[in-house]
Write a structure and sequence with these properties.
about 240 residues, alpha/beta, seven-stranded mixed sheet, 11 helices
Length: about 240
């Protein structure tokens, strides 16, 4: 997986949330969490595996909503940050953090209701193999996101420290067909690239986000959205 060593560095893990989800990045955090919740609802009592859970943004949120969640990541440093977030959290569900490899998930077949993988597919060396492995341990649903080939992200993609794979809609649709998964819904968002939001204060980012959302509500700009949120079923 791309960026594996980079994500395991202590300083990267410690600064990860502040660099990406403070300032205007708060809008990204809110949108991603809403995408996950809307795909999984109702959350309560649902068993969920999050692959590449990182600092636990989604795992903690889902456990607070009443899900029984396992967060898996290759990076011990990221998991340490995730465990720190549980201190003082009011969890109505359960939460466990495990270190492990997304390519060889340490769970039996059909073990979870839902498997999610946010901020993951752009790093996957073999997306079909990873999708098959997620399908193996899920009995109902898989939720993931992809960064899009024809978006503004392609302009600065080369500068990212771990590289990044961009997808067209047709590529993902082909992956779903190969792994015998059924598309339930796909939502496109963020015409303005993430990097701009992170670079500016929230007060400035908010009106840009309002304009972005208004323009993105039309069908043609969807093809140029930076990210797509995919909700797929095993049925």
């Amino acid at each position: 997986m791309k960026g594996q060593e980079w994500y395991q560095a202590d300083d990267v893990a410690e600064e990860y949330d502040d660099k990406r989800f403070s300032r205007g990045g708060q809008l990204i955090d809110h949108r991603e969490k809403r995408a996950v919740l809307e795909a999984i609802m109702p959350v309560e009592d649902r068993s969920v595996l999050e692959i590449a859970c990182g600092t636990g943004r989604f795992t903690v949120m889902l456990a607070e909503q009443g899900a029984d969640v396992v967060g898996l990541d290759i990076s011990a440093a990221m998991l340490q940050q995730g465990r720190a977030k549980t201190r003082g959290s009011n969890l109505s569900g359960t939460l466990e953090f495990l270190r492990g490899d997304a390519g060889r998930l340490p769970f039996p077949d059909d073990h979870f209701d839902t498997v999610i993988a946010m901020r993951f597919f752009h790093l996957a060396d073999d997306p079909e193999a990873f999708l098959r492995e997620m399908r193996r341990v899920s009995r109902d649903q898989i939720v993931f996101d992809t960064f899009n080939r024809f978006s503004a992200r392609s302009v600065y993609n080369w500068a990212l420290p771990m590289g990044s794979r961009l997808y067209s809609k047709s590529e993902v649709t082909t992956l779903l067909a190969k792994t015998d998964l059924t598309l339930v819904d796909v939502v496109d968002d963020f015409l303005v690239p993430y990097g701009l939001y992170r670079a500016i204060p929230n007060a400035l980012a908010t009106p840009i986000r309002t304009l972005d959302t208004a323009i993105g509500g039309h069908s043609i700009p969807d093809h140029f959205a930076s990210v797509s949120y995919w909700n797929v079923s095993l049925r």
